[in-house]
């Protein structure tokens, strides 16, 4: 058995990213970003551009939109503050309107819940947007904890949000598996000392998830559920 197989076999809980992993939110974010840009008299961004900008939280998304710079550096603080206020106003109105749960997500979550795995959402999206989105998509009942980008001092790729989720679920980091669509997620999992699984769909900030050092890659959460022990307290032999 390889080290990655041992990690999967010993999984007792899961932390799961939101945007690009559980739910496709790019159309909501695209509409909110372009409403912000229009209010500031700036040109629109394409859906593909917004997809590359997703992953490191609201502030970085706004900065990237304002500058078309993947590093997220805004031209000046005043422009950023104006953009952030406009974005929050528009996204509050739009959040969840065009969002779609990815194929295999509900089936996978249901199977994992039935098998007894505690699960938490770990996202860089603020909690005030995360909770309504989970309710609107019908995913809220599957999760024991929800950690947003404003729940801990540092967002992913720092380990803080995953550690916080495991504390809230009262589970061991060593036996937790984090699932996400980007290097942001994989790096956070590695820093936290838990396993990491990448999904091959999603946004990945424009970089291939295949380049990351994952313990496994899956095409859906249903596929992941089938890879793990049938009961959370048992291991594959």
From TrEMBL:
Enzyme class: hydrolase
Family: Belongs to the HAD-like hydrolase superfamily. CbbY/CbbZ/Gph/YieH family.
Keywords: Carbohydrate metabolism, Hydrolase, Magnesium, Metal-binding
One Pfam family here: HAD_2
EC numbers on record: 3.1.3.18
Catalysis performed (reactions): 2-phosphoglycolate + H2O = glycolate + phosphate
Domain of life: Bacteria
Annotated protein name in UniProt: Phosphoglycolate phosphatase
Annotated pathway: Organic acid metabolism; glycolate biosynthesis; glycolate from 2-phosphoglycolate: step 1/1
Gene3D superfamilies: HAD superfamily/HAD-like, Putative phosphatase, domain 2
Binding site for Mg(2+): 17, 19, 181
GO cellular component: cytosol
Entry annotation: catalytic residues: 17
GO MF annotation: an example: phosphoglycolate phosphatase activity
Cofactor: Mg(2+)
Kinase listed as a keyword: no
GO biological process, one term: DNA repair
Organism lineage string: Bacteria, Pseudomonadati, Pseudomonadota, Betaproteobacteria, Rhodocyclales
Job description of the protein: Specifically catalyzes the dephosphorylation of 2-phosphoglycolate. Is involved in the dissimilation of the intracellular 2-phosphoglycolate formed during the DNA repair of 3'-phosphoglycolate ends, a major class of DNA lesions induced by oxidative stress.
Keyword match Acetylation: no
Organism field: Fluviibacter phosphoraccumulans
């Amino acid at each position: 058995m390889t080290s990655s197989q041992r990690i999967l076999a010993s999984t007792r809980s899961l932390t799961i990213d939101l945007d690009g992993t559980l739910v496709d939110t790019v159309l909501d974010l695209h509409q909110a970003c372009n409403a912000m840009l229009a209010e500031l008299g700036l040109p629109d961004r394409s859906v593909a551009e917004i997809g590359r900008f997703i992953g490191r939280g609201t502030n970085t998304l706004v900065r990237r939109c304002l500058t078309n710079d993947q590093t997220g550096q805004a031209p000046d603080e005043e422009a950023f503050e104006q953009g952030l206020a406009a974005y929050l106003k528009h996204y509050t109105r739009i959040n969840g309107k065009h969002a779609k749960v990815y194929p295999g997500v509900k089936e996978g979550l249901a199977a994992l819940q039935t098998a007894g795995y505690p699960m938490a959402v770990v996202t860089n999206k603020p909690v005030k947007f995360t909770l309504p989105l989970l309710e609107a998509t019908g995913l809220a009942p599957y999760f024991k904890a929800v950690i947003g980008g404003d729940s801990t001092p540092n967002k992913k790729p720092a380990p803080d949000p995953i550690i916080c989720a495991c504390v809230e679920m009262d589970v061991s980091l060593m036996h937790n598996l984090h699932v996400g669509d980007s290097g942001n997620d994989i790096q956070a999992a590695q820093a936290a000392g838990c396993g990491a699984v990448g999904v091959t769909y999603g946004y990945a900030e424009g970089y291939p998830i295949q380049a990351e050092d994952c313990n496994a890659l899956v095409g859906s959460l249903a596929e992941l559920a089938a890879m793990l022990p049938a009961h959370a307290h048992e291991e594959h032999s």
